[in-house]
Write a structure and sequence with these properties.
407 residues, alpha/beta, TIM Barrel, globular
Length: 407
């Protein structure tokens, strides 16, 4: 029998104690950096121990810290995977810029620019659904004041505080791994391309701003991997940017635009062993129609140009589940592993273990069971109820066991 491993894509449900502790932290004068607090550090360390222990109890093979080191002060939060970097980056300030409703920009062939965050083609096709807070598309936090987005007003760089916070993540996670008997795990990190999506009021050139974020992120990647821990580079922008560009670009223009973001990742991880790198991409976490998503068949080969060993992507989301067939035509490098989403964050229905097994087998039959790690589409924490999130992970492990028995 070949054991098919399991993991998840990052965020796991926080305890209420940790959510409250994050929400109640006092901020520095800049308005978005939390002040240091020994009591908060105790709550965080205990919570990381607990979330890793629970993964061990369920049977998750490759655990994470649940992104607990990334501040999330509300039960619903789609952005902590991204906003955590603000505390760790110099050159940012609150300027009054409304990131979500900024004046839209229009792209021209061969010259793509991102529009405002909410000027999405999917949103324009379903305005009633996006505007309905009850039966429509939930996209906001229940405490929206906790999601503050600064702008770059000076040279961006990984800060001394960033080094301290990253070291704290490593310490907490390493302790939790050892305590639960794990030999390996991963910490999620931001991609340069995702960092460069904030408003730039300093560089004035998108390519220069992207280059600057390579230098911001590299110290975090290096610190984590130097500790022997895998990094997961979160870059939903590789796929998700497509819906945020108006008018809709050609496939060729979009791939050229995205190639710069792939190259930025490779520059940032240069010299880091591939076996310590996994990439995660998706089409965004919000529970919307997603009819304007970029097709995976156009993106898969470019995704594989990232110098990682593990490639995580959505595959259970019903808008993309059919795309497992892409791997019949795309050649996975021999030393690489795919980490497809097998259970979804976008439905409250818990996938049956037999369905989990069937989804796993689709990929295993193509690339081999030893080169598949069954995962979640995206992070589960802050997106679905904790009871449902943990039930999905239990079903994932049970289904992986069923599939493993067939190889």
């Amino acid at each position: 029998m070949t054991e098919i491993l399991t993991t998840h894509a990052g965020s796991l449900p926080r305890t209420q104690e940790l959510i409250d502790a994050n929400y109640n932290r006092e901020l520095e004068a800049d308005g978005f950096t939390p002040k240091k607090s020994p009591e908060f550090e105790r709550v965080l360390a205990d919570a990381v121990d607990g979330v890793v222990a629970r993964q061990k109890e369920i049977g998750i093979s490759v655990p994470g810290d649940g992104e607990y080191g990334k501040a999330m002060g509300s039960a619903i939060n789609y952005g902590s995977w991204w906003s955590y970097i603000y505390d760790r980056t110099e050159g940012l300030a609150l300027t009054g810029t409304d990131f979500f409703n900024a004046e839209p920009h229009r792209s021209e062939p061969g010259n793509i620019v991102l529009t405002s965050f909410d000027d999405r083609r999917d949103r324009s096709l379903f305005p009633g659904a996006y505007a309905d807070p009850v039966t429509g598309v939930p996209t906001t936090n229940d405490k929206p004041e906790t999601f503050i987005i600064p702008a770059a007003t000076g040279k961006v760089a990984f800060s001394e505080l960033g080094k301290e916070l990253c070291a704290n993540d490593i310490t907490n996670f390493s302790h939790a791994l050892e305590k639960s008997g794990y030999k390996q795990g991963y910490l999620s990190t931001l991609s340069p391309g995702s960092g460069a999506r904030i408003h730039d009021e300093y560089y004035g050139d998108p390519d220069a701003f992207l280059d600057a974020w390579v230098d911001v992120m590299r110290p975090e990647y290096k610190a984590i991997t130097d500790a022997g821990i895998q990094i997961q580079i979160d870059d939903p922008s590789l796929a998700e940017n497509f819906d945020q560009i108006n008018p809709e670009p050609s496939v060729e223009d979009y791939l050229a635009f995205t190639k710069k973001r792939v190259d930025a990742i490779n520059r940032a991880i240069d010299g880091i062993p591939r076996e310590l790198v996994r990439l995660h991409t998706c089409w965004g976490s919000w529970h919307g129609p997603h009819v304007t998503d970029f097709e995976f068949k156009y993106l898969a080969e470019l995704m594989l140009e990232v110098n990682a060993k593990y490639y995580s992507f959505e595959a259970a989301n019903v808008r993309h589940e059919h795309e497992w067939v892409v791997w019949k035509d795309v050649t996975l490098p021999e030393d690489c592993v795919i980490v497809p989403g097998i259970v979804s964050h976008s439905t409250n229905v818990v996938e049956h273990p037999e369905l989990v097994a069937q989804r796993i087998e689709r990929f295993a039959d193509i690339v081999g069971p030893e080169r598949v790690i069954a995962s979640t589409d995206c992070g589960l924490g802050g997106r679905i109820h904790p009871e449902i999130a943990w039930a999905k992970l239990e079903s994932l492990v049970e289904g992986a066991g069923i599939a493993s028995a067939k190889y």
